[in-house]
Amino acid sequence: MASTNPLFFLLLSTLLFLSPLSDAQTAPPLAKGLSYTFYKSTCPNLESIIRLELQRAFKSNVGLAAGLLRIHFHDCFVQGCDGSVLLDGSASGPSEKSAPPNLTLRKEAFDAINQLRDRIEKACGRVVSCADITALAARESVFLSGGPNYKVPLGRRDGLTFATSDATLKFLPSPRSNVSVLLAALALNNLDVNDLVALSGGHTIGIGHCSSFNNRIFPSRDPSMDQTFFNNLRLTCPTSSTTNTTNLDVRTPDVFDNKYYVDLVNRQGLFTSDQDLYSDGRTNPVVSAFANDQGLFFEKFAYSMVKMGMLNVVTGTGGQVRANCSARNPGTGWSVVDGEEGGSVAAY
Ligand code: HEM
Ligand SMILES: *[C@@H]1O[C@H](CO)[C@@H](O)[C@H](O)[C@H]1NC(C)=O
Ligand SMILES: *[C@@H]1O[C@H](CO)[C@@H](O)[C@H](O)[C@H]1NC(C)=O
Ligand SMILES: *[C@@H]1O[C@H](CO)[C@@H](O)[C@H](O)[C@H]1NC(C)=O
Ligand SMILES: CC(=O)N[C@H]1CO[C@H](CO)[C@@H](O)[C@@H]1O
């Protein structure tokens, strides 16, 4: 009998034993209430709807991908991935009046999330949360720009309260931060050195305003910056108050690849928070490894994105599924807009 062959047992036990192990290496353990099959019966076409819609949208506006990726990061870092960043009135959200300056999340990206929500409600009814749509849209930003196609755990619910100005300032580090400050900020969310270097790779797409890096070119060149790169930035930002923008990744600005790390190795990182990853001994080996091996970067980025995407999620019967990603459902509790005076803070 085949099943008595010792080789067969060896093979079987190897498969049974190793496959959970290799899963564990490519994805962190799931947060309670999340699963990879959450909408399998209630909205089976969810992921293909989002992919097709965004594929079309990115063709006419490539910057939308960067905008959507950054919104998911801001959502997760400030009071968890609960769609709070999307609420009109959130300190890092779309509302003009309570937003601290220099957050510069793109309005088209908030609009795109609402359009996806409407499209999904037509197909499946009101079953998919805005927080899940945001997480899936971020994955498409990565994948459709050339990055890894990782699986996203689903089942988040939408929170009822805004991200306050205080929380936003506490959890979102400034681009002027060094590695010590960044590590301390990420530790508040249980993220480590590897997560910091991998997630910063999100800066392989998108743009930054002069105000986010003027500390490195005025009054003079930050010595950790390449001279030619500096000369070009001074053309884009002739004065420290210029409102121009420039690409975060000077090599391949719209492609999700490992060139961001190649930039850092060549001292062409844009923000202090980028370039210090190469200068600091704790993060430098990881930067070099990613610059040399895109496959390794993709694997670690996917892992850290899934981990970030499970921060303080609301699940089960908590929160709600919003009918409008920009507003709490009518008659469902109260929230306070904090820190309307947040206008005095430094750059983000
Ligand atoms: C580690 C700390 C981080 C800091 C200090 C930081 C800071 C910034 C700043 C200042 C900007 C430009 C804002 C502007 O001048 O308009 C920016 C843009 C961006 N960030 Fe980060 N970021 C961090 C982490 C992340 C993470 C974890 C992701 C996603 C995985 C991410 C994705 C992006 C993207 C895609 C953009 C471009 C947005 C656009 O073009 O609209 N960032 N970031
Ligand atoms: C990092 O920045 C903080 C705050 O600006 C500063 O106190 C600290 O000395 C800096 N650390 C290093 C290693 O440069
Ligand atoms: C940047 O803005 C200034 C005006 O402040 C303008 O003269 C200059 O041409 C702009 N440079 C680029 C590269 O957009
Ligand atoms: C969604 O909510 C926002 C914020 O309250 C509001 O401005 C917008 O008109 C709403 N959209 C729809 C389609 O009702
Ligand atoms: C520190 C910093 O660069 N802050 C800037 C934030 O944005 C405003 C304009 O919205 C600038 O005036 C600040 O200088």
Automatic annotation (TrEMBL):
Its EC number is 1.11.1.7. Residues 1-24 form the signal peptide. GO terms for cellular component: extracellular region. Keywords: Calcium, Disulfide bond, Glycoprotein, Heme, Hydrogen peroxide, Iron, Metal-binding, Oxidoreductase, Peroxidase, Secreted, Signal. Ca(2+) 2 binds at residues 204, 249, 252, 257. Ca(2+) 1 binds at residues 75, 78, 80, 82, 84, 96. It catalyses: 2 a phenolic donor + H2O2 = 2 a phenolic radical donor + 2 H2O. It is found in: Secreted. InterPro entries: Haem_peroxidase, Haem_peroxidase_sf, Peroxidase_pln, Peroxidases_AS, Peroxidases_heam-ligand_BS, Secretory_peroxidase. The record marks 70 as: Transition state stabilizer. The keyword Heme applies. Substrate binds at residue 173. The active site is at 74 (proton acceptor). Its main location: secreted. Pfam families: peroxidase (PF00141). GO terms for biological process: hydrogen peroxide catabolic process; response to oxidative stress. SUPFAM superfamilies: Heme-dependent peroxidases. Belongs to the peroxidase family. Classical plant (class III) peroxidase subfamily. Belongs to the peroxidase family. Ascorbate peroxidase subfamily. Removal of H(2)O(2), oxidation of toxic reductants, biosynthesis and degradation of lignin, suberization, auxin catabolism, response to environmental stresses such as wounding, pathogen attack and oxidative stress. This is Peroxidase. It comes from Acorus calamus.
